[in-house]
Design brief:
This protein has helices spanning 2-27, 32-49, 51-77, 82-96, 105-125, 136-143, 159-164, 169-197, 206-226, 231-254, 261-272, 280-295, 304-332, 357-360; strands spanning 145-146, 149-150, 336-337, 343-344. By secondary structure, it is an all-alpha fold. Helix 1 packs across helix 2.
Length: 361
């Protein structure tokens, strides 16, 4: 790996050394702040170089959100034919110009620098020359402390290893735990900001559930792996998380996803400033809907005792009505009286009395 990443070791160490020369003026060459700020400056240089990829990531993420309903329809249509399903998915990506891997480009592009920095700090901890850092520079970086924790130390180091760096194990573990918690928290709030403010709420897709899962998975991963990272790498990762949080906040404010809460808030601000003029008919329709909603009254709920008393009052009335109907039916349902005083049975309505054969003749 050293032979493959050797040029990156040189590039990373060279950038750190150049910033170290700058920060040594106010803080001193052996100061932990000089080396810590040099690592933070390295992050800023890398993230500025990755801004074009970040823009592609935003566009790809939005395209993927918009394509989720179509992708779900393809999966349902060809759920028994995996090959046809993959072909239709690739066709959909090609037609819309969407690359699913674009959302991972900033992380993938940053990974080699992260690995290179990790190896540089690891070699410094072992008192080995790396890149352009040799001799006194390696010794200064190895023993430089941030809040009492050497840059090359990690949470999992033993007491003997920490003593070799002229530090205390308690200081190292307290500093690393705080930095790991801050690193995980910054990752959580970055993902939460994306989910709560910059997701199209008009479309419910599996993509939203995936993002919600990542909101909890990523911080746990950072916490688990962070105990093995040297303090310098924790500085690097915490800085890049804070940068991502601020960069995302800027993008959400300036260019939010259509249909999201941030987009609605931005539209409201632009309307208040008079920069967006709506159709008068739409404004009137919205006003009418709001007035109708405000004037609508809900029926008052009655207690159980009131409902029981109301039901008891209705029952006698129903029985009285039923009795009156029966009496009326008895009076009007009988046949007409004949001359002999008997009752003549009433013929069924709509039926004629059958005629005899003689009468027909």
């Amino acid at each position: 790996m050293d032979s493959i990443l050797g040029p990156l070791y040189t590039a990373v160490s060279w950038i750190i050394v150049q910033f170290h020369k700058l920060y040594s003026i106010p803080f001193g060459e052996a100061s932990g702040w000089s080396w810590g700020l040099s690592i933070m400056s390295l992050v800023i240089v890398i993230r500025i170089a990755l801004i074009p990829l970040f823009v592609k990531q935003i566009k790809s993420t939005r395209n993927m959100q918009a394509l989720q309903p179509k992708m779900k329809a393809i999966q349902e249509r060809y759920k028994s034919d995996r090959q046809r399903q993959s072909e239709e998915m690739m066709k959909l990506y090609k037609e819309t110009g969407t690359n699913p891997l674009s959302s991972c480009l900033p992380i993938l592009a940053q990974s080699p620098f992260f690995i290179a920095l990790y190896q540089v700090l690891n070699k410094i901890a072992n008192d080995q020359n790396v890149g352009v850092m040799k001799g006194d520079l390696v010794e200064q970086a190895r023993t430089a402390k941030i809040f009492g924790a050497p840059i090359a130390a990690s949470f999992m180091d033993t007491a003997a290893e920490v003593r070799d760096l002229a530090a205390n194990l308690t200081d190292v573990r307290v500093v690393t735990v705080i930095m790991i918690l801050l690193m995980s928290a910054s990752q959580f709030f970055t993902q939460r900001q994306l989910m709560t403010k910059n997701v199209d709420l008009t479309v419910k897709t599996p993509f939203m559930q995936q993002q919600k899962m990542l909101m909890y998975i990523f911080p746990v991963m950072f916490a688990v792996f962070g105990i093995n990272f040297p303090v310098g790498v924790l500085v690097y990762w915490l800085t890049t998380n804070v940068w991502t949080l601020g960069q995302q906040m800027y993008v959400i404010k300036r260019n939010p996803t259509p249909g999201s809460i941030a987009f609605q808030q931005r539209q409201d601000k632009l309307r208040a400033k008079g920069k967006i003029k709506e159709d008068p008919a739409e404004v009137e329709a919205k006003r009418a809907v709001e007035e109708a909603r405000a004037n609508r009254t809900q029926p008052k709920r009655q207690s159980k005792s009131r409902r029981s008393s109301a039901g008891a009052q209705q029952q006698p009335a129903v029985k009285k009505t039923a009795g009156a109907t029966k009496a009326a039916g008895g009076q009007g349902g009988g046949g007409q009286k004949s001359a002999s005083g008997g009752r003549k049975p009433q013929q069924a309505h709509g039926k004629k009395k059958p005629q005899s054969a003689k009468t027909k003749k």
